[in-house]
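Exercise 7.
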Amino acid sequence: MRIDIISAVPDLMTSFFGHSILKRAITNKLVEVNLINLRDYSTNKQKQIDDYAFGGGAGMVLSIEPIAACIADLKSKRTYDEVIYMSPDGELLSQKLCNQYSLLKNIIILCGHYKGVDERVRQHLITKEISIGDYVLSGGEIPAAAFCDGVIRLLPGVLNDETSALSDSFQDNLLAPPVYTRPAEFNGWTIPEILLSGHSANIDKWRHEQSVERTKLRRPDLLK
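Solution. The predicted structure, written as tokens, is:
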């Protein structure tokens, strides 16, 4: 998989991809992530990529010219399955969506900034808009990082134990069950006896029951 991320401030994302699971995935060539500075496509001497909004109002808007030039340049080199714009009014990111996108080969992600992007970008250059929640951030870099993390960890070979992702919350529309580790007793707090039984079938049954119960209490909407 290849992910090209277009950003006004790409350095914000450097550390995110330089550690832990994502770094290992990149090092092992399971995914290629490219951070692209939108200013490299500005024809302005000051490398300006934003301008005032028509009609007035506070805040600046990312201009269409550098974005269009950047996307055109990328598309001249390969075919992309999706051009994503991280937007608070896009489709809410879900585990199901991450599963779907983990099967794609080439993705472009555009990070918004300031007051967003020229609407013509969304109308003519974007194929999908994705949100990570009903709130507004300073830019699309954090949402893009969240999207990439959710997708990349599902790629074959990224996790040491590939079955781990199958038991994550939301994979089967249920929250994950509680988990415990050693010691079995701490400050008088003990773990459920069944986890010490060694009976895999009973443990699996208990975990499923716990997932259902936790989902009923915390996210009953998922059961619908």
